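>> received
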Amino acid sequence: MYQIATKGEAPIRMITNFQRAFILAEYYLSQNDVVNAQRYYTEGITASMTKVGLTAAQVTAYLAANPSIATLQGGNARMLDQIITQKWIAWVGNGYEAYNDYRRTGYPRLAVVQPNASPDDQNTIPSRFPYPTSELSNNAANAPAFVKTNVHVWWDVR
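>> returned
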């Protein structure tokens, strides 16, 4: 039996439809399969726009009117930039995932705003967040006392 959420609870989506499509577009691009990369790229844009309430006709009209956005073009780096930029736009409201994609790929190309909030390097966008004080005091054996915000996390191989 289903229960109705009355206290602000909502389902947590582990992966969204647009996210799945953009992940597949990126995968196929990494395999040099531009046909399938384009297919999933278009599906990702469509899913993203549908999620915010646009109709299928509106999405189709937008894609037709904006071929430089709708069509992957250029070399692999340019096409990856297009995919991640559209995924970034789709992530509005979920900055953590957008930030992780940026850290992982370096896309979309973002301008450093001055003054930059990073105390460690005013000319770069931070690669990580400092550990919160609670983590440092409650998990001192595993959390380093100080890590600069311009030092990449272990999985960031850029």
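>> The helical segments are 17-30, 34-51, 56-65, 67-70, 76-90, 95-105, 133-138.
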